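We close this part of the discussion by returning to an individual protein. The amino acid sequence and the backbone structure tokens for this protein are reproduced below:
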Amino acid sequence: MASCVSRASRSLHSAYRAWKIRAAAVRTRSDAVLLDRLKALTVRDVQGRQQPEILYGRRKMTAWLSRGEFAGVSKHTVDRLMRLEGMNGLVRGRKPRSTVSTGKDSARAPDLLKRNFSAPHPNHSWVTDFTYVPTWGGFVYVAFAIDLYSRAIVGWHASTVKDTPFVEVCLNMALWRRDNAGHTVQPGLIHHSDAGSQYTSIRFTETVALEGLVASIGTVGDAYDNAAAETVMGLYKNEAVAKNSPFITGPLKTLADVEKLTFDWLERGINVNYDLARHYRTWLDQQSATITT
């Protein structure tokens, strides 16, 4: 009996020593490296901001990791580790906004897109819209112009007044940026917007025509006629402006705060964001791959 107990004891000790010196499993080691990368996203910089990738869900996070040192990483592995760390990504609301127009009978351009938010090449069609950001000093309005081919934001402008000159500056900035980059917009580009009073005004209609663009305006009261622009508005509000945004370092007090916030979002966030419709290529990748063709 004593010898049986002794043999059992030696066997247990041997198993314990083997377990102590055994190398960690491959999955355990790879999980540890990936977890370190995910945890690094939560580390705040000198301005108190987390990395913009902290907003990614499972699919975008997988695409982002695959572009770096984790090529071929499984979406299931990413999902499992994100759940382990309590990382859920950004959850967007669904609150489509309908257009406010000067009147249903006001003359305006036809809807040339018909909800077809695709384009065969850059500078073929742009969509534009604006949203608002509450600050201590009142509302600040931010307008964006988006190229439908790459979903790249080609122009933007912030103002405390939502008048026609406000949206004109956004358009002029987009035109200047393309021209300055050596990709001048050719006559015939479709400029699509909702039926807001700023876009249906005589002044803005003339500006679009003088630039050689073709105006296109969605129907009144239907946010889906400008859904591509609404998507960008939603991303901006949820990623840049929402509570706990990695781009906010303090309360938004003035127009200058919103301008800095928007610039940081464009530089650190949206320009490296992953467009689901483009197989997770970044919007800058998609733009760069074809703007020279």
Observations:
- Residues 2-21 form the longest helix (20 residues).
- The mean pLDDT is 80.
